[in-house]
Amino acid sequence: MSLLRVNSMVAINHQSQEQPQQQLIEELEALHREMTELKTQKQAFEAQRELLEHLVAMAGCSVCKEMLKATLHDTLRVSSKLCGAEKGSLFLLNSNGDITDSILTQLDTTPEVKASLLRSVLDKGIAGWVLRNRQVALITDTETDDRWVMLPNQPYIVRSVLAVPIFKNEELLGILTLLHRNPGNFSLETAYLMELTAHQIALVLENAQLYEKLEESYNSLDKAKGAIETYSKALDSELEKGRQIQIDFLPREIPQLPNWEISACFYPARQVAGDFYDAFMLPGNYLGLVIADVCDKGVGAALFMALFRSLIRVFSGQTQLEGLSIIGKDEKLNGFIDPLVTTDLNQINALKAVLLTNNYIAQEHGDMNMFATLFFGVLNPADGCLTYINAGHEPLFIVGDSRVKQYLKTTGPAVGIMPNIRFKIQQVQLEPGDILIGYTDGVTEARAPSREFFTTKRLLSLLEQPTSSVYDLLERIKTNLFSHIDNAQQFDDITMLIVGRSPII
Predict the structure, then answer these.
(1) How far is it, in rounded angstroms, from Cα 192 to Cα 83?
(2) Res. 111 pLDDT band, cuts 50 70 90
(3) pLDDT tens digits along 132-178
(4) How many CB atoms are closer than 10 A to CB 470?
(5) 153, 157, 98, 155: which is closest to 127 by C-alpha?
(6) Which of 26, 315, 416, 459 makes the best surface tag, with the fewest CB within 10 Å?
(7) What is the 3-state secondary structure (H, E, C) of 430-450?
(8) What is the DSSP string of 57-88?
(9) In this predicted structure, what is the pLDDT of residue 6?
């Protein structure tokens, strides 16, 4: 074998040995790079996991502003760790683009320096560029990028910058800025990672803003509640005054007449009511008896109750009001009051109060659509003769010998609907031992918790039981009525007037 051939074979063998060694070196370098990348990714993952934990904590503690700010400090710290930044800042913005709060990694920054930075950062700084352009700013070297402006009194030299806007939909909530002293510290991958992080921060900031607005709403509600409570107390005070005034319109003392007993009760559904009763002496030693129910409830009904009561009293006493006067005995009745049952002018003139009251209400207040069902009776205590008008009111009962002897049904429409209505007069005799019972529909229509009405049938069953006095009868009815109502709401005013003639002993 020639020397040339031997040398050729040695060279080929040497090359074949070098190729596996080079390939092995390349594979080891690739593996090293992969391990380094995995290690970096692991570190980034750990940092991001810590960041997300803080974000979750921030969301859960957004009820506390101080906790929110402390958590944002941690967020900035972890974000710096995630990107290998040395310093950073987090600016929170309002809808006008003004800084509402700022967080710096350098916690020992003096207030003077911090104030100076904040004044300049949105005018000349990179955060201002992000605010105006609404996009990520990545500066690999500040010395070659004119977007970076060295601010006066800046305490450290910056070469790498990453500024990320924090968006929620189209609204810019803040700007996250990360800094490093060396160039090329941040990459596109880092920028992308921080954009994802900024999205998470945006969710938390939005929740914090929503909570702040909710807290402001609650504070406003508390203030409104306080104002309402103050107004409510004032209103209750005024209504209480109204209630006292209304009670004063009821007779303080019911006339006490020989051989007669009179009892009454009044239970308004609200502080003021539309029901009323009255008992008063009239010229000729007659007794006027009234029970009425003004339509509607509350303040309006209470005002008209006072007006109806006053008009009946005034007109039945032969006085004048607003040009309307009692018709004298020499004047015609014009067919509006039918006096066929009596010729006693004292009774007739008193009952004309119903006609005059009707005309006054209809003429002066017809646009209010306020009317009243009303019973007005004029009793002669000497002989028990009762002359009356029942203007659309519930029938009154005359009870004697434990039975209902008569029903005093309506003799005309309600008072105040329209002027010049015809009202008929009726007359009835109350014998010794007879009892006259008047009531409003709040009695028979009172509801139990099951919404069952008390009913006229129940009332009649109580009237037909033996009784020793008018007072005892009224107490029996009240006991059964309020036992029926129990704890249910009282929907209507409850009023009763009972007059009894003593039996002959």
Answers:
(1) 11
(2) low
(3) 898 999 999 988 888 887 766 666 788 999 999 988 888 888 888 89
(4) 21
(5) 98
(6) 26
(7) CCCCCEEEEECHHHHCCECCC
(8) HHHHTTT-HHHHHHHHHHHHHHHHHHHT-SEE
(9) 47
Q: Does residue 447 contact residue 429 with C-beta atoms inside 8 Å? A: no
In three-state form (DSSP H/G/I as H, E/B as E, the rest C), the secondary structure along 237-287 is HHHHHHHHHHHHHCCCCCCCCCCEEEEEEEECCCCCCCEEEEEEEECCCEE
Exposed/middle/buried for residue 495 (C-beta within 10 Å: 0-12, 13-18, 19+): buried
CA distances from 15 to 9, 27, 29, 172 (A): 10, 18, 21, 63
Please tell me the distance from the alpha carbon of residue 487 to that of residue 448, in angstroms, as a whole number: 8
Question: Phi and psi at residue 204, in whole multiples of 5°?
Answer: -70, -45
Dihedral over alpha carbons 269, 273, 274, 278 (to 10 degrees): 110
Using CA atoms in the order 19, 20, 24, 27, what is the torsion angle rounded to 10 degrees?
70
Distance CA 355, CA 321 (A): 14
Calpha distance 56→201 (Å, rounded): 10
Radius of gyration of the chain (CA): 48
DSSP 342: -
- pTM score, whole prediction: 0.58
How confident is residue 318, by pLDDT bands cut at 50, 70 and 90?
Answer: very low
Cα(426)–Cα(193) distance, integer angstroms: 98
Q: What is the mean pLDDT of the chain?
A: 80
Domains of the chain and CATH, by start = 36-212 (3.30.450.40), 240-501 (3.60.40.10)
- pLDDT reading at 430 higher than 60: yes
Cβ(269)–Cβ(294) below 8 Å: no
Give the Cα separation of 433 and 147 in Å (integer).
Answer: 110
How far is 380 from 378, CA to CA, in rounded Å? 7
**413: confidence class by pLDDT, cuts 50, 70, 90:** very high
pLDDT digits (tens, 9 = 90+) for 26-52: 666 666 666 655 555 555 555 555 555
